[in-house]
Amino acid sequence: MLAQHRLSLAGPFSNGATRPTRTLLLGSILGALALAGCQTASNVHDFDDVDRAMGSEANISSLSAVVNQNPSDASGYNVRGTALGRAGRYDQALADFNRAIEINPGFYQAYSNRALVQRKLNQNGQALSDYNRSIEINPSYNEAYVGRGNLYRSQGQIDLALADFSKAIELEPTDPKAYNNRALIYQGQGRHDDAIADFTASMTYVPNAPAPHLGRGLSYLATGDYKAALDDFNAVVRRDKDNYQGWTNQGLALEKLGERDAAFAAFNRAHTLNPGYAPARDGMRRTAPGTSS
After folding, report:
1. Cβ neighbours of residue 236 closer than 8 Å, sequence gap 6 or more
2. What share of the chain is helix, strand, coil (3-state, %, to 5)?
3. Which of 26, 61, 160, 252 is 20 to 30 A from 32 (CA-CA)?
């Protein structure tokens, strides 16, 4: 149904979790992979609840025709707002969600979707209010808990974020985002066994998504299981040959396994994809032919 389309502007690798103290090398990789990172999630592959084509001009035009034909249907505004959000047209998306809520003040999905756009616009106070309102209307709406958990995590309120992700999983045990996001918190707390379990659960429901493989690989690195880490990073670059973080982490795992030539090649590939990425550049320096281990 139209009302059930969800805006997915932000990924699971994106919300300011506190970084633990690590060795300098592993710590730089963890930081670069946005354990704490960026709700913009630039170049970090996240989960897309909405098909990438949803933000296309053709789709928005089609949805506008639906809205024009049914101007009193809140669902139409909600879905078009989602598409506009995917296209980065946030002010227009907000206008559509505002209209949807004006027509139907109990439209809990629209509150949650509006909160995602507000987060994009750094309107975190309004976003929190909308997530709270969505949950007040429907305490069983797991997406609002995931979104609010991401907001809490970005603000360093880790206990509140953890509670929200756990609640989302209780409500919807097949939600890969909730598992992935909770795993990031566990990882930031140094609870790598718990993180690995949650990343693995996330993969059960989205086996081809790079994000949980990136995350689980980091926890395997932290626990010294370099072969398992390499397997995860290999899976990332098989699925996305332009994922510079996957190549960088593959290089790190290979370096730990003593395969310096292969590690250099992986770091070099990452550097080619993103010349400004310091962990790749540093990895090349460490593993360049002629350097000592």
Report:
1. 210, 213, 214, 217, 243, 245, 246, 249, 250
2. 70, 0, 30
3. 160
Q: Rounded to whole angstroms, how far apart are CA atoms 176 and 84?
A: 24
pLDDT of residue 113: 96
Q: What angle do CA 216, 160, 13 make, to 5 degrees?
A: 30
Q: What is the DSSP string of 100-126?
A: HHHH-TT-HHHHHHHHHHHHHTT-HHH
Decide: 165 and 149 in contact? Cβ < 8 Å: yes
Mapping DSSP onto H, E and C, the string for 123-156 reads CHHHHHHHHHHHHHHCCCCHHHHHHHHHHHHHCC
What is the distance between the alpha carbons of residues 201 and 206, in angstroms, rounded to a whole number?
A: 9
CB distance 45 to 233 below 8 Å: no
What averages of pLDDT result for each successive group of 10 residues across the chain (293 residues)?
36 32 36 29 35 72 86 91 92 95 97 96 97 98 97 97 98 97 97 98 94 97 98 97 97 97 98 97 94 71
Cα–Cα nearest to 5, from 57, 55, 65, 44: 55
